[in-house]
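Good morning C.,

I know you're traveling, so I'll keep this short. The sequence:
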Amino acid sequence: MVKLNREMLRDKIYACWIGKNIGGTMGGPYEGKKELLDIKGFASEKGEPLPNDDLDLQLIWLCAMEEVGPYQLTARELGEYWINYLPPHWNEYGIGKANMKGGLLPPLCGEYHNEKWRNSNGAWIRSEIWACLAPGFPQVARRYAFEDACVDHGMGEGTVAEQFTATLESLAFFATDIRQVIKEALASIPAESRVAASVRLVLEGYDRGDDWKTVREALLRESADLGWFQAPANVGFVVLGLLYGEGDFKKSMILAINCGDDTDCTGATVGAFLGIFYGTAGIPEDWAEYIGEKIVTISVDRSYRRVRSLDSCRALTERVMQMIPTVLTANQIPAELTDGETDLTCDDPIWISSTKQRTDYELDPLVRGRYCFDAWASSLLRVRVEYDRLPELLPGEQVTVTLNVNNKMPSPLNADIRLILPEGLTADRKYGRMYIDHQCHLGDNWSVTVTATEELKAMNRIIAELDIPGRPQPVLISVPVMGK
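The tokens, ready to paste straight into the viewer:
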């Protein structure tokens, strides 16, 4: 049984939010600057932290965790909170919400007509809540981070980036070597991703002894085709600040912000990470006093009752502390909070500082196709829909649809499948049977090829009925196909 000291966690989580507020406020005035900067400190008034969506969205995610609970919190539920409690329609935020309102579920809603922003910064900047709810358990933090990021970034680099930062921050709770934490977080994301390439570039440049400005220029060249406000370069700026800052809070944050681009995001993430890593003892007293602990919001609906009281870093910390035991229990983590010493001894070490890629249906959510969505879920059965291409068809075009069923029950199942097709679509088969293995981690598949025979409406829904003998009700899956 892992034992986590309450006061240690409380101190680190509180320092995370203070550090987040410091970095967001310090970097905010320079957001979007393309040139190399030379800031020295705050450009805002003392005691007046600037509002920042990096922190705002996490207030809503905590409320969602409290209301929905960690057992059922998925991208679909987070999407509902997007629509109801987060008014902004900026960039990927607006695209993801518009696609959900149009009938698409995550991650597909984060992919559809989102080429410009699926690789951008909106997700990794809001990852601390998952790390704080799963301190030292990066597999858990990373799973929730995926559910969060895919709503507005699909399977893009923005989603990979939040996997990286959630892992980085979760590991920071019990780490002693910043460089080692970066390497472990890097091992948790696909090696071929653009985010991984940026992180490696900084690590290699640092190891060679390159000047930080030289590394910054290399990051800009590496990501030139993506443009500004994109995840690979800006995550690279965070890593640059952490490495070249050599553990010093002020130096690290100023270096990251001086790289330019999305400066409120890079500064805030550096501050949050170092807050977790060192606790309040590592935050300079003059900066902590300057910023205070007030949380000022810009992108949340304050009429939502549950979020109103989250008006300070202390209040946010206490609400997170209350949820940690429930989150750990829901994810079968053998851990408890204690007033005694922290003890990370565990019979199942996969959960402790574990970042290895796994092909498990749930634990490695990046192992899936680009065009997909999680269609149906219960505690024992989950269904994912995957397409072999964007499901947007002209007359004569085809798309292959695969149902991937994950059975967590102790016995195998058979499912009789029936498709109900709308006008304008045909399929190479309308009926089938699927054998579903027991306690299957990878899921079992059934595929069908669908053809548009005429010009389609904007939204067309195929209904896939899975009738499982011995179960009380069939599973009905809505499979959208869009017309061009």
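Safe travels,
E.
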